[in-house]
Structure formats: structure tokens, C-alpha cells
Amino acid sequence: MAAARRLDLPVVDLASAADLRAAAKSIRQACVEYGFFYVINHGIEGALLERVLAESRKFFEQPMEEKMALRKNSSHRGYTAPYSEKVDDSPNSRGDSKETFYIGLTGDDNLQNNGNQWPSEERFPSWKKTMMSYHANALATGKKILSLIALSLDLDAEFFEKNGAFEIPTAVLRLLHYAAVGDVNASEDGNIGAAAHSDYGMLTLLATDGTPGLQICRDKDRHPQLWEDVHHIDGSLIVNIGDLLERWTNCVFRSTLHRVVPVGKDRYSVAFFIDPSPNLVIQCMESCCNETYPPRFPPIKSGDYLEERLSSTYKLATV
User: Fold this and answer.
1) β 194-197/203-208 pair status
2) What distance in Å separates the CA atoms of residue 34 and residue 318, rounded to the nearest whole number?
3) CB of 201 closer than 8 Å to CB of 247
4) Residue 250 · residue 299 · CB < 8 Å
5) pLDDT at 88
6) ω before 278 within 30° of 0 (cis)?
7) Do 317 and 83 meet the contact criterion of CB atoms below 8 Å apart?
8) pLDDT at 222
9) Which of 30, 192, 233, 272 has a CB 3.0–4.6 Å from the CB of 37, allowing a cystine?
């Protein structure tokens, strides 16, 4: 596989609250040009992330039968084995070689979020507390970023709060393990950690263990595709726009293709997906359309859109 170019994405400091407009301007440029950016001083402590990664490693190191006891349920919560997910419909692709674990919100008042599965407390006494702490912190950070995104779109900073996006937010923590492979060119044979895709929802926050492998392709229609490496910055989160927000902004912001390629060593990461309340109708933002640039997509409920996209991912898989 040909070497990818190194990419220097914009870095947004969330601690620079004194100049929100400048931060919003940086985010707008990043979302228009790249669909990806870094955030620093985001409020999630490094020690908490290290605990999440340690618990994740411990879980994925278990025998397969132990992990499959918590296999993903109808609420999309729990474990998915390697090759359970497939976004590449080419005949030589078995699907993504990664394994994952999904964790949603908890709360007795919301049936939508009561599908979580948990490992044995005897073997994983700190698992639930650690994951829920990270979930709460990541959601708070995501809301800060979305407030800046609203400002960057010439909207009120509380746009997403006021329109009901967070009444019943679909916020999912996803632990990921990409096993080491001996051949770093394995992706050329259809064996890849995560095949080229764009995220389905609104916003993704990604933390990694520092292992490389993440690449983006800024021009979806270019052939051959040009892939660029997203390098690790200590203490940062990688943020990217999903398809739902691209649709919501009438394609003003871009949802960018990305993938994870083999690098010859195990890779662990923590993705956090923030999506609107399932019943919220997504229709073009007023600041993103006019008479000469009318809405490109019909209105659709957030939950319907995401369920359709998730279902297609698992239908393509071979197992």
C-alpha cells in the first residue's frame, strides 16, 4: 500500500472561551475544508481516558466465548466480533477486522437507553463506573463543541439545546480494538481494520492510544483516492462531522471518508457518537439555504435515518 501523506488538521482550544467567535471561525473552516479537527483543553482528564483504555484492553483480551456472551442486542448495545460490520460491498471484502463494544446512556426514565450490557462485576468491578464517567464527560464536551458549531453556522449558541436535539440524545460510547496483523499491506487484499466510510450521525469524538492507522480522504469522488494520515496529538480529541450534520447543513459542512489501516500492532481507541433525539425532524438549517441554494434533502426523523444506516451496515456483513 502506498504511503499516505501526513495531514495537519486545525487545532481548536476549548479553553479559549474569551474569544468564542474566533474558535467558531476556526471550526467552520475545519468543517468546510476537512470535516475533521482536533480539540485540546476539552475537559476529559487524561487519567480517565487511561482507565477506559485499560478496561477496554482487559475486556478484548478475553476468550471469544466470554465476549460473545454480551453480543450486540437489538438496541445496538454490547459486543460485535471481527467481520460483523461491513461498509465495503466489494466481493473481496469480508468486512471490518475490528471488534467493538457499544455503551449508551443509562436512566430508568428513558427506555431508549436501557439496553446496555455489562461485564461481570466480579471480573470487572470498575467497568461500569469508568465507562459512565467517560460517557458523561464526553457528552458535556460534545455539547460545548456543538455550541461552537452553531455559532459557526450563524445560529444561536444554544441552537441544538433549544430545538430539542438533547431532549433524548442518542449518545453512544464505542470501544474499539484493531488487532495487530503481520502484513501492513493486508488492506490491499480486503482485510482492513475499518473500511472507508463516513460516520452516519451528527458528531464523533475520538480518543486513541497513540497508535497510527487513521486516514482520511477529503475528496470522495477522486479516483484514485488520496489518503492522508491523521497523526496523534497528546491530550487531544479528534472530532469529525457525520452524514446527518452534513445533511442538516445542506452540505455546507462535509462528512469525510476515513478508514483505519493495519500498522503491524494492536490499536485501541474510544469513539463517542452524539446524535439528536430520535424524533427530531432534521431539515435544512435556515442559515444554510436560500433561493439560489435551496434545501437538497427532504426532512427526516433522526432516528429513522440512523436506523436505516445502521441496518445496512450489518446486512452487508458475512457473519
Assistant:
1) unpaired
2) 32
3) no
4) no
5) 67
6) no
7) yes
8) 80
9) 30
Please report which helix (H) or strand (E) contains residue 29, including its range.
Answer: helix 20-33
Query: What local confidence, expressed as pLDDT, does residue 310 receive?
Result: 78
**C-alpha distance across the termini of the chain, in Å:** 27
Nearest-CA neighbor of 266 among 134, 131, 176?
A: 176
Share of the chain above pLDDT 70, in %: 88
For residue 114, what pLDDT is reported?
Answer: 66
237: which residues sit within 8 A by CB, 6+ positions away? 38, 39, 42, 44, 141, 205, 206, 207
pLDDT at site 319: 40
pLDDT at position 193, please? 87
Query: Which residues of the chain have a pLDDT value below 50?
Result: 1-2, 108-112, 182-184, 316-319
Cα–Cα distance list, 56 to 19, 61, 130 (Å): 37, 9, 10
**In which residue are the cell numbers 431508549 written?**
112
Residue holding cell 452524514?
243
CA distance 220 to 200: 15
Q: Cα(58)–Cα(250) distance, rounded to whole angstroms?
A: 42
Nearby residues of 229 by Cβ (< 8 Å), 6 or more positions away:
4, 5, 6, 7, 212, 214, 215
pLDDT score of 111: 45
- How many alpha carbons lie under 13 Å from residue 303 in its C-beta half-sphere? 11
Pairing of strands 203-208, 267-275: antiparallel
Do residues 273 and 171 lie in contact, with contact meaning Cβ atoms separated by under 8 Å? yes
Q: What is the pLDDT of residue 90?
A: 64
